[in-house]
Amino acid sequence: MKLRELFFTFLISTLCCSAQSREASKGLSSAAPASSDPTGRPAAMDDSYIIAASDVLTVTVWKQPTLSGSLLVRPDGKISMPLLGDVQASGQKPMRLAAQITEELKRFMRDPEVSVVVSKIHNNYVYLLGEVGKKGPVVMTPGMTLLEAISSAGGLTDYAKKNKIYILRKVDGKDHKLPVNFKKALKGDADFNVTLTPGDTIIVP
């Protein structure tokens, strides 16, 4: 009799534990936060990087596979999209570009939702020429400023003309000259410590 009682006790205990485990799993499942938007729409992304020529972008238009895909930013800074044709991408942040594409697609569809992700970075350099310690390309960090780039290049030489420093920046395929007030930047004035974009060239006469 004792053996029988022990067997039934063991059986009931096992069944109870199994039921509790199932309930606990259910609870964890319902309490766990969703890893993505429950609608399946594109999630927001960090937006600190500035797109440059030769980068590869993944453009996703929700529920529109023919408009979505991997796109190379051409040397002129543009990407080509169905319906829209050429779209200026370089010099923009991913979220800003996504907003621009969204607005342009409104001509063709109702409430488009677009995400842009930089899947490959190919042009994350700035260049320094002239009176700096080390001429040539400098690996760019997110948000790199004029002073950080010059510092990474070993600083200015004794012959540098600080009041004549300027930045060459390519916009829409054309070079634009941006004057620099180095002395004010050096004094800590953030308005003059220019934030660089990939491909910028700093000229130090």
Key features?
wza like fold, 2 domains, three-stranded antiparallel beta sheet, elongated, 25% strand, alpha+beta, 205 residues
| Radius of gyration over C-alpha positions, nearest whole angstrom | 28 Å
- Low-pLDDT ranges: 14-45
3D shape: elongated
For the termini, the CA-CA separation is: 102 Å
Number of strands: 10
Which band does the percent of strand residues land in?
Answer: 15-25%
- For the record, the CATH class of the largest domain is Alpha Beta
What is the count of DSSP helices, taking H or I runs of 4+ residues? 4
- Helix/strand-derived class? alpha+beta
CATH architecture of the largest domain: Roll
Name the CATH superfamily assignment of the largest domain.
Outer membrane lipoprotein wza domain like
Helix and strand succession? Answer: HEEEEHEEEHEEHE
Mean of the pLDDT scores? 79
Strand arrangement across the biggest beta sheet: 7-6-10-8-9
Largest sheet, strands/sense/barrel: 5 strands, mixed
CATH topology of the largest domain: Outer membrane lipoprotein wza fold like
Helix content: 25-40%
Number of domains: 2
Describe the structure.
- With 205 residues, the protein is α+β, with helices and mostly antiparallel strands.
- It is 26% helix and 25% strand.
- It has helices at residues 2-31, 94-105, 146-152, 182-186; strands at residues 56-61, 69-72, 78-81, 85-88, 114-120, 125-130, 136-139, 166-171, 174-179, 201-204.
- It has a 5-stranded mixed sheet, with helices on one face. The protein has a 3-stranded antiparallel sheet with strand order 2-1-5. It has a two-stranded antiparallel sheet with strand order 3-4.
- β3 (78-81) and β4 form a beta hairpin.
- The chain is elongated, with a radius of gyration of 28 Å.
